[in-house]
Amino acid sequence: xxxxGSTFVSSAISMDSTLRGVSSFSHRTRCSSSRQVVxxxxxxxxxxHIHVSRxxxxxxxSSTSLAFGSWNGIASTDNAMAADLIQxxxxxxxxxxxxxxxxxAIKENPELVPFLLRLALNDAITYDKETKTGGPNGSIRxxxxxxxxxxxxxxxxxxxxxxxKKEIDEExxxxxxxxxxxxxxxxQAAAKRTFLDAAIKKCGGNExxxxxxxxxxxxxxxxxxxxxxFGRSDKLEPDPEGRVLLWEExxxxxxxxxFSKVGLGPRQVAVLSAFLGTDQAAMDAKLAQDSELARWVKxxxxxxxxxxxxxxxxxxxxxxTRLSILGQxxxxxxxxxxxxxxxxxx
Length: 346
Fold this sequence. Notes:
By secondary structure, this protein is mainly alpha-helical. The protein is built from 14 helices and 4 strands. The two termini are 19 Å apart.
């Protein structure tokens, strides 16, 4: 019997070392074994290790077989679960590193925030429901599309992401990140920066206090579904013209109509005002001229004045998440790779 907590033995041919970081296994023992494996090393949440004897593994597997059915079925199920956990861990680790790089780079280049937001919007809003074309497929990076009137100011954002992409790809174990993913994650990082800047401003410009305020009251946890949509594919040709507006110049009716065509209403138009113009206050003033939009504009302006900004942040995250996956078929195995195998002494 293992003296330090109960051990749940699951089957797996190999276990990636990154699985050690999966938070759902906090305060529980993690162990891998297979039909052929008769000894194993389990890691506890405090990073200490215990060794399970040959007899203990066999007894554990026998008990599991008796309690839940034939061993073959359990081994197959557990192998699939272990593989899924490994892939989730690999993707989460990769995405986490990308976020760190983006946060640092954006902090050093704050002037790019509005352009990163606009880049994410303009790449996604090309989606057409009838033809199932367009959407956040990374095509905005292509010179033919980037030179269009609605995108001419976005080349700096593309160049910025291009430099980060080279660094990310060099370190990636699961292949290069798609432009489609990077553009949307870049938009996410820019949105988070606006939230953090607002918190710092509320603290009189004190960055340390602002960080504490954002971490304590911000809506960072609301990004969960957005983060899962990691595996967009790139398109190699530009999207059709005429689907993106010059937002700051376009009539309000055209703006709401364009959003409506991708399934987003006045509420989403109002909450995404920072994505529509480099001057959010000016864009809010423009949108507020419409009676249907005015109440939503006020709602989010009032929310931004509060300590938590909850209504604004949560609704923006929800609207942006919907925008960021329009027409996309997500590959949930993207950026995964075969884990390192290791030999266990019998």
